[in-house]
Amino acid sequence: MKCHKKKRVLRKNLFYMGAVVTVLLTAMAVTGCGREAVEKITCSDTAMGTVIQQTLYVRESEDREADDREEEGREAQDDADALPARVMDCLNDLEAQILSWRLEGTEVYEINQSDPEAGYPLSEKMSGYLECISQVWEKSGGALDVTLGEVTRLWNIDAWAQGLGAEEEAIGELGFQIPSQAAIARGLEDTGFEKLRIEENRIYLPEGMSLDLGAVGKGIACDEILALLETQEQVQGAVISVGGSVLTYGSKPDGNCWKVGIQHPRESGEYLAILSLSGSKCVSTSGDYERYVELEGIRYHHIMDPETGYPADSGLISATIVSDSGLLSDALSTACFVLGAEKGLALAESFGAEAYLIGKDMEIYMTEGMKALILR
Ligand code: ADP
Ligand code: MG
Question: What is the pTM of this model?
Answer without folding.
Answer: 0.88
